[in-house]
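Working notes for the structural subgroup meeting. M.R. asked for a predicted model of this chain before we commit to crystallization trials. I am recording the input and output together here so anyone reviewing the notebook later can reproduce the run.

Input as submitted:
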Amino acid sequence: MSYNFNEKRISRNIIAPAIQVLISGIVFFVLYRYLYERLGAEQIGVWSLVIATTSVSRIGDLGLSAGVVKFVAQAIGRDDTQRASDVIQTVTLTLCFFMAVLLSVCYPLFILALNYFIPAHEVPIALKILPYALVSLWVMAIVSVFSGALDGCMRIDLRSLVMGFSHLIYLGLTMLLVPQYGLEGVAMAQVIQSIGLMVLLWWMLRRQIVKLPFIPRHLKLQVLKEMIGYGVNFQIITLMNMLFDPLVKALMSKFGGLEALGYYQMANKLILQGRSLIVEASRVMVPAIAALQKHDIVKATQLFLISYRITFYVAVLFYGLLGIFITTISMLWLGHYQATFIQYALLLNLGWFTNTLIGPAYLANLGTGKLRPNMISHFIMGLCSLLVGIPLGFYYGGVGVVVGTISGLITGSIFLLISHIKLAGLHWPSLIIPQDMTKLLILSIFATFFSNYGRSQHSSIVSLLGIALLSSASLLMLGWLNPARMVLMRRGKL
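Returned structure, recorded in token form:
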């Protein structure tokens, strides 16, 4: 196959992930409400910590799955499908073997970690679901290769379709298995979902690259050597990224307890689900810039500028609306006013808003292969979270850990954004907050404060919803009048 590199395909690759995220968002909302009622916040905390602990082993990825997008995109851009096939098969076979060995070796270490961070009465169930988590992690390492290859083929739309379908299957399996198996049923459902996802993605990928065999069987050392050169730098990023989530959850479990960790998981998942809608829409930049970097640097820079402006506009509206409805969400989702959940969600909303803004810069760096700024950004995030989260967690419990987390997110994100803008030869002070966005940003902050401050468990759902709707209407009205709306609509009609 060869690249059909045009704006219509880019638009399709932006819209499809948005639909997928909407589907997965609905699934997530229903799923966590179901688990909260059936299992409680503490059991959600156990599941969250097991997944976070085992995810550290994704360091064994060696950064190879991330390199698949870039290398497949370049091969397809040269109409070299054999090269694309070699890349996919080589990475798949390498990760199959290496991840299996690594997970086997780390199994005793995971047991020690869970015994340390989880209260004794919850350790048996944590150890029971640990093997399921490891199997799921191994399968998802292969899934990341296949999904990255589809992205490299500029078929993000197909990947999104399969992902959205798999989330619906996961919800159904969870509701089927939890009544009989409890938390173990959640783990079983995830294993089944991940295996089905792997098979479907491989079938889709073989339809795009016909030279792929029925089962991956060719490993080329020369291809592996080339990819490791890219992967070594990315692996450092992966290491820091993989450590960030387990580190925060371990601190939360230690200083806040499993129940606080459960509320943190729900609040964080709520925000990240919406964030993925914005980030996925920008992900098309990786294969696009990888294809453009040697032919049209000016167009690649323009792609970043347009993407950043749209990202900022959408992020202000999304995080503003989410912040406005946090207390209302607590009442509707959890069935009551939950102060811990609300507090965590509002803090995380601020941190992830800032982090979302760096999406275009982060992905542009992946496309060009300039990974050093991304690496430093992750290092800053992890270090700040640790240095701030530990002392604040010791004195203020879970909320101190969350403050440490958002301090890391904000500091690392600002560094990367300024770094990328300066490297592109642009004037960063005038670009951090794009033109005509200041009023929208200020109103978003004020509306969030107005909708949540002074509310309590005695507030009625009617009054909460009324205030939230009034605040959101004013934000949406100003957003509608913003010039960025026309830019966004033009891109969507391409």
